[in-house]
Design goal:
Protein name: Polyamine-transporting ATPase
CATH topology of the largest domain: Rossmann fold
GO molecular function: ATP binding; ATP hydrolysis activity; transmembrane transporter activity
Bound molecules: adenosine-5'-triphosphate
Helix content: 25-40%
Number of strands: 20
Keywords: ATP-binding, Cell inner membrane, Cell membrane, Membrane, Nucleotide-binding, Translocase, Transport
Radius of gyration: 24 Å
CATH architecture of the largest domain: 3-Layer(aba) Sandwich
InterPro entries: AAA+_ATPase (IPR003593), ABC_SmlMolc_Importer (IPR050093), ABC_transporter-like_ATP-bd (IPR003439), ABC_transporter-like_CS (IPR017871), Mo/tungstate-bd_C_term_dom (IPR008995), P-loop_NTPase (IPR027417), Transp-assoc_OB_typ2 (IPR013611)
Pfam families: ABC_tran, TOBE_2
CATH superfamily of the largest domain: P-loop containing nucleotide triphosphate hydrolases
Length: 365
């Protein structure tokens, strides 16, 4: 435990009628972090956020806020800011009054309230809409009011549960940069829930990846993306195709399903069975000296503006995805191609079972 830790989860767990919603989870969040809980539906993100917020009580373990055990406190007693997907603004109150609401409840003087509301309106760039009612605002503007209201009294932590889920793509991207700017400007600790990998990557200083009611990886977005610690993270976060492989005593690497090729594994690779992960942008079409190669047939392609995503049935794995620049796309379905994965961009995971103990040891360092 260190003084910079705002929030500490100490083996916190939750079951509903004996069914596990969150396995014992331990990690600490530092002041000013933007931590995102990222995982597919049902992975336990909302359960963990509700435990932190105080809407649920842990079955076991504890939650410490600034070294104080808050596990038994009500949401109001925890004094955390909260923003949800449904903006839950007071419809009959103006923007300014919505922002002021929590300050009044906390008995701030009228003068302090006025100054803080003005400051928050400026931070979310809604000075010109101070007297509007929520119904007169766009979805993005309403979400800004919700953010301003939640941050007005300067909580230790702001919790956000899929706050951009109801917005269209363009507005979502705009709001992402707004949220990032506000986080940088205020330095408040943010904990954010989403199932969207891109959103998590754009916003977070660290990401906790969840699957099957567990945090399975925790780290900086760029580290997790390039060096996922397990197969789930490689597939879910790094968008990798995974293939079974092995390294023999002479450090020769080969794919388990294909006999013809073998390549020198990176120096220091121990003999054993591995999962080899191929990110769509790590793969190159053609032969790259020294790099493992898969042979395959293009089955289809999909245009993403400047880039094209090719789908390839390779000899050792089907449904391999490779992204190339659109201008380089001279390929058609049915073409045979070689796909090389340079070692520096490849993912190589030893096939050791991932235990939650091993994860916890790494996570609380
Ligand atoms: N009130 C509850 N009663 C019983 N089971 C629950 C309850 N809340 C959650 N669960 C179960 O706990 C697990 C984790 O759910 P949780 O809602 O935390 O996942 P999530 O990652 O937030 O999913 P989503 O993105 O769909 O909201 C799921 O298996 C879910 O069915």
């Amino acid at each position: 435990m260190n003084d910079d830790h705002v929030l500490v989860l100490d083996a916190v767990a939750k079951s509903y009628a004996g069914v596990l919603a969150l396995a014992p989870t331990s990690f600490a969040i530092e002041k000013g972090e933007f931590l995102t809980l990222l995982g597919p539906s049902g992975s336990g993100k909302s359960t963990l956020l509700k435990l932190i917020a105080g809407f649920e009580t842990p079955t076991s373990g504890a939650i410490l806020l600034r070294s104080l055990d808050i596990s038994g406190l009500s949401p109001a007693q925890r004094q955390l800011g909260m923003v949800f997907q449904s903006y839950s603004l007071f419809p009959h109150l103006t923007v300014a009054k919505n922002i002021e609401y929590g300050l009044k409840r906390r008995k701030w003087s009228a003068e302090r309230r006025r100054a803080r509301v003005a400051e928050m309106l400026a931070i979310v760039k809604l000075e010109h809409r101070a007297n509007a009612l929520p119904a007169e605002l766009s979805g993005g503007q309403q979400q800004r009011v919700a953010v301003a209201r939640a941050l007005a009294y300067d909580p230790d932590v702001l919790l956000m549960d899929e706050p951009l889920g109801a917005l269209d793509r363009t507005l979502r991207l705009e709001m992402e940069s707004e949220i990032k700017r506000i986080h940088g400007q205020l330095g408040t600790t943010f904990i954010y829930v989403t199932h969207d990998q891109q959103e998590a990557m754009h916003l977070s200083t660290r990401i906790a990846i969840m699957n099957n009611s567990q945090v399975v990886a925790l780290g900086r977005p760029d580290d997790l993306f390039r060096n996922p610690p397990n197969v789930f993270t490689a597939e879910f976060f790094s968008d990798a195709t995974t293939v079974a492989a092995e390294v023999d005593d002479r450090t020769r690497f080969r794919f388990e399903a294909g006999g013809d090729g073998s390549w020198a594994a990176p120096a220091g690779t121990a003999p054993g069975r591995y999962t080899f992960g191929i990110r769509p942008r790590a793969a190159r079409l053609g032969i790259v000296e020294g790099a493992p190669v898969l042979r395959g047939t293009i089955t289809s392609s999909m245009l993403f503006g400047d880039e094209v995503r090719l789908f390839i049935d390779a000899d050792v794995v089907s449904g391999l995805r490779v992204v190339i620049p659109s201008r380089a796309n001279t390929f058609a379905p049915g073409d045979r191609v070689d796909v090389s994965i340079p070692w520096e961009d490849a993912i190589l995971l030893p096939n050791a079972p991932v235990t939650s103990r091993a994860f916890h040891a790494g996570a609380t360092r």
